[in-house]
Design a protein that fits this description.
- Its cofactor is pyrroloquinoline quinone.
- By secondary structure, the protein is of the alpha+beta class.
- Helices cover about 15% and strands about 20% of the residues.
- The protein has two domains: about 35-175, no CATH class; about 195-690, 6 Propeller (Neuraminidase).
- The strands form eight sheets. Strands 27-3-30-29-28 form a five-stranded mixed beta sheet, with no helix packed on it. A five-stranded mixed beta sheet has the order 8-9-11-12-10, with no helix packed on it.
- Strand 25 (about 570-575) and strand 26 (about 585-590) form a beta hairpin.
- The protein is globular, with a radius of gyration of 27 Å.
- Residues about 1-20, about 145-155 and about 660-690 have low confidence and may be disordered.
C-alpha cells in the first residue's frame, strides 16, 4: 500500500491541470441552526434551533416586560417572540430586506404548497382578534418611524387598535408569506410538506461543442451568449457559445487568448491558474481577477507570508520538503487585472492587459497539494469568495482546517471594492490589499481570522450559488480515504474536517499540530455525497466535482436538481430537495450519453455506451442557465433529453429542429492547437490515473 500510496500522493492534486430569497434552515444572523444538548426553558424548540440558553432567557425577559394580562394573547405573543429560535427564522424575519420585529404571520389570502397547511391558517387574523384590545407594553407591533413593519419604537400606545385602524391594515403590515413565499408563522415551529421525491431523470443528454480542455468557465457579466474559459497554464479566452441545438460549436480561437498570464503563473502537475472571476460591474469597469500559484524561488513578486507560522503553532523549519519543494516556496495568489484602454467600450473588449492592477492576496503554502483556489463573487453582497484547501500533507497533520487563526481549509470572504489603508492591513495582519466585510463571522467570534467565512474544509473543489436561491451556496469538498461530500455553506459554518471525513469520524496518522475534540465543535454534515466504494472499485480513488442547481429550461426534467460528478467521469448525480427549501436531499446516480447529432461527434469508452469524457475537471454555467461539463476531452453541454432518446414528459419536442452533426468544429473561429491539446490530455491522463485528487 505504501508504494502505491506514495505514487498517488505524489500526484495528489494534479487534477487541477488544465440574499433576495432565503428559504433553507437559516438563522437571522445568517448562521445555520445548531443542535443543543439542553432543552430551552422558555421557547419550545428542541433539537435544531437558532437560540442558545442565553438568548432564550433574553426572550423570556422581553416577554415578561410586556406585562400581558390576557392569557390567550400572552400565549400567542410568546410563540411570536420565540420564532427567533425557529430554524427558518431567517425566512420568517426576511433578513434580506428590512429587519422585522415579528415574523411573517400566516395569512389566509396566501396560498402555499411548500409549507405544511400553514398558509391556510389565518394566524394573522387570530392575533388581531385575540390581542387587539389587550394592553401590551413595548409592543413588537408598534410601527416604525417609517410607517413600516420594521423595528419597534417606544410609544405610549399599548393596544393594537391604537397602532392600526383595522385588521386589514395590521395584516398588510405583518401578514403574508416570507420573502420566497415558502414559509410563514402560524404559532408553531415551521414544518414543511414532504410531497414525495419525484422520480429521477431518465438520463442526461450531452452535446459536445468544443475540443479544448479547460479548468474554469465564467459567463460574461454583460448577459450575452459569451463566456470566459481558462486553463491551468494561465491563459483566458473569450468565447461565443452557440444556441443549444443549433449545430454550432464553441467560437474560441486558442491562438488568440483574451489574456495570457503564463509568465506570472507557476504551472506544473499541482499548480497553475485555479480560478477566474469577473466583477459584477465588469461591463462598466473592466475589472477581473485571477487566482493562481507562483514560485517564490523564481519570481520576485511571489513573496507572501508563510501560512505555517507561530500564529498557528507551526514551524516551517520543521517541515520536510514536499515533492522537492521547500515549505512555502509555492504561493497562492489572487490578483486584479483590467480591460481598460483595450477598447472604446469595456463591453467591446476582446483582450485585457496582462499586467497586474493590484495584488489582492499572497500566501505561502506549506505543502504542494490541497490549495483549492476557486474565486467567485457573491450574487447579493458583491464580495469575493475565495476557496482554500487545508494545505496538503496526509490527513492535514497540523490541523489547519480547524485552526481559527489559519486561512487553510477555509472559505474566505473579501471586499475588493475598498482598498485598505496600510494601518488597517497591519492592524488586522491582512495578506494583501483587500478590506474585511463588517458582517464576516469574526465580528461575533474574536478567535476567527477576519477573512474567514466558513471553516473545516479539506479541499473545496467547485462551489456555486443557486441562481434562484442565493442562500444555497453549494461546495464540493474532496475527501481523504472514504467520502466525497457536498456542503451548503453558511456564515461561520464548521464543516468538520479533520474531526470528520464526511459523516465519519477521522483519525489522522500523525498530528504534530494537535487535535480537535468532536465534542468541541458543532459540525455541519454534508447534505449529499458518496463513498469511495461506490465509484472506485476499478480505479482505486475518487474525487468530487461540485456542480450547480440546474435552472435551464433545456431539460425540464432536471430543473431544480443539483448536479455533481466524479473526476473519473464514470458517474453523475442529480440531487432532489424534499421537502423543497428544507436542505434535505435525495440523490440518484443517473445515466448519461452523448447526442448522436452532437455538433462534434463524441467518442465512446471502449466496450461501453458511455461517452469518453476523459476526466471531468469542472462544471460551468452560461447566461442562458445551461450547464456545461469541462472535461479533458472537451466541452459538453446538457441538451434536450429527446436527442438521446431519454423520455421526459415535460419536454416540448414539437417545436425543435434536429441539427446536423459534424466530425469537427465548423467555425473557423474555433482553432484548436491539437498538439498542445493532445499533450495536455496525455499529461492529465497520466497524473490522474496515478493520483485520485485525494
Amino acid at each position: 500500500m505504501d508504494g502505491a500510496y506514495a505514487i498517488i500522493f505524489l500526484f495528489s492534486n494534479l487534477l487541477l491541470l488544465p440574499y433576495p430569497s432565503l428559504s433553507l434552515p437559516l438563522c437571522t444572523d445568517s448562521r445555520p441552526p445548531v443542535s443543543l444538548n439542553t432543552t430551552l426553558k422558555f421557547c419550545p424548540y428542541n433539537g435544531s434551533t437558532c437560540c442558545n440558553s442565553t438568548e432564550d432567557s433574553q426572550l423570556q425577559k422581553q416577554f415578561q416586560a410586556m406585562s400581558i394580562s390576557d392569557p390567550n394573547c400572552a400565549s400567542l405573543l410568546q410563540s411570536i417572540l420565540c420564532a427567533r429560535c425557529d430554524p427558518f427564522s431567517a425566512s420568517l424575519f426576511t433578513i434580506a430586506s428590512v429587519p422585522r420585529s415579528v415574523p411573517v404571520l400566516c395569512n389566509s389570502t396566501v396560498t402555499n404548497s411548500s409549507q405544511s397547511s400553514q398558509a391556510e391558517n389565518n394566524f394573522c387574523s387570530k392575533v388581531w382578534d385575540t390581542c387587539k384590545n389587550v394592553s401590551v407594553l413595548n409592543s413588537p407591533f408598534a410601527p416604525s418611524l417609517q410607517g413600516q413593519a420594521g423595528t419597534s419604537v417606544n410609544s405610549n400606545f399599548t393596544k393594537l387598535t391604537e397602532f392600526w385602524q383595522s385588521e386589514t391594515d395590521f395584516c398588510i403590515a405583518f401578514g403574508g408569506a416570507s420573502t420566497d413565499e415558502s414559509v410563514c408563522f402560524d404559532g408553531e415551529p415551521v414544518k414543511l410538506n414532504k410531497t414525495g421525491t419525484p422520480s429521477p431523470p431518465h438520463g442526461l443528454c450531452l452535446e459536445k461543442i468544443g475540443n479544448g480542455s479547460y479548468l474554469n468557465m465564467a459567463a460574461h457579466p454583460d448577459g450575452s451568449n459569451r463566456a470566459f474559459f481558462s486553463n491551468q497554464e494561465g491563459k483566458i479566452w473569450l468565447a461565443t457559445i452557440p444556441k443549444e441545438g443549433s449545430g454550432g460549436t464553441l467560437e474560441l480561437d486558442e491562438s488568440n487568448p483574451f489574456v495570457d498570464l503564463t509568465d506570472q503563473v507557476h504551472f506544473d502537475t499541482d499548480f497553475g491558474m485555479m480560478g477566474i472571476a469577473f466583477h459584477p460591474n465588469f461591463a462598466q469597469n473592466g475589472r477581473f481577477f485571477a487566482s493562481f500559484n507562483c514560485d517564490k524561488s523564481t519570481s520576485p513578486s511571489c513573496a507572501g507570508r508563510c501560512s505555517c507560522n507561530s500564529d498557528v503553532n507551526c514551524d516551517p523549519s520543521k517541515l520536510v520538503p514536499d515533492n522537492g519543494a521547500q515549505p512555502c516556496q509555492y504561493q497562492s495568489v489572487v490578483a486584479e487585472y483590467t480591460t481598460n484602454g483595450t477598447a472604446p467600450q469595456v463591453s467591446l473588449a476582446q483582450s485585457a492587459k496582462p499586467s497586474e492592477v493590484r495584488r489582492i492576496f499572497t500566501m505561502g503554502l506549506p505543502f504542494t497539494s490541497h490549495h483549492g483556489g476557486q474565486i467567485l463573487f457573491g450574487p447579493t453582497d458583491g464580495y469575493l469568495y475565495f476557496m482554500m484547501g487545508d494545505g496538503g500533507g496526509n490527513g492535514d497533520p497540523y490541523n489547519f482546517s480547524q485552526n481559527k487563526k489559519s486561512l487553510l481549509g477555509k472559505i474566505m470572504r473579501l471586499d475588493v471594492d475598498n482598498t485598505p489603508s496600510s494601518a488597517e492591513i497591519n492592524k488586522l495582519s491582512l495578506w494583501g490589499n483587500y478590506s474585511i466585510p463588517k458582517d464576516n463571522p469574526f465580528s461575533e467570534d474574536a478567535d476567527l481570522q477576519p477573512e474567514i467565512w466558513a471553516l473545516g474544509l479539506r479541499n473545496p473543489w467547485r462551489c456555486s450559488f443557486d441562481l434562484e436561491r442565493p442562500s444555497y451556496f453549494m461546495c464540493g469538498d474532496v475527501g481523504q480515504d472514504l467520502y466525497e461530500e457536498v456542503d451548503i455553506i453558511s456564515k461561520g459554518g464548521n464543516y468538520g474536517w479533520r474531526v470528520y471525513e464526511g459523516p465519519y469520524l477521522y483519525t489522522p496518522q500523525s498530528s504534530p499540530g494537535g487535535n480537535t475534540s468532536a465534542k468541541s465543535i458543532n459540525p455541519i454534515f454534508p447534505v449529499m455525497g458518496y463513498n469511495h466504494s461506490e465509484v472506485s472499485n476499478n480505479i482505486g480513488s475518487a474525487a468530487i466535482m461540485g456542480g450547480y442547481f440546474y435552472r435551464s429550461t433545456t431539460d425540464p426534467c432536471v430543473y431544480g436538481r443539483y448536479l455533481y460528478a466524479d473526476l473519473y467521469a464514470g458517474a453523475l448525480w442529480a440531487a432532489t430537495e424534499d421537502p423543497e427549501n428544507s436542505g434535505n436531499f435525495t440523490t440518484s446516480k443517473i445515466p448519461f450519453s452523448c447526442a448522436k447529432d452532437s455538433p462534434i461527434k463524441c467518442s465512446s469508452v471502449p466496450a461501453s455506451s458511455l461517452p469518453a469524457l476523459g476526466y471531468i475537471f469542472s462544471f460551468g454555467q452560461d447566461n442562458q442557465k445551461d450547464i456545461f461539463l469541462l472535461a479533458s476531452s472537451g466541452v459538453y453541454r446538457i441538451t434536450r433529453p429527446s436527442r438521446c432518446n431519454y423520455t421526459c414528459s415535460k419536454e416540448n419536442v414539437t417545436s425543435v429542429q434536429t441539427p446536423s452533426p459534424t466530425t469537427a468544429p465548423t467555425s473557423h473561429a474555433y482553432r484548436s492547437d491539437e498538439p498542445y491539446n493532445s499533450l495536455i490530455v496525455l499529461l492529465s491522463s497520466l497524473f490522474l490515473l496515478l493520483l485520485g485528487f485525494a
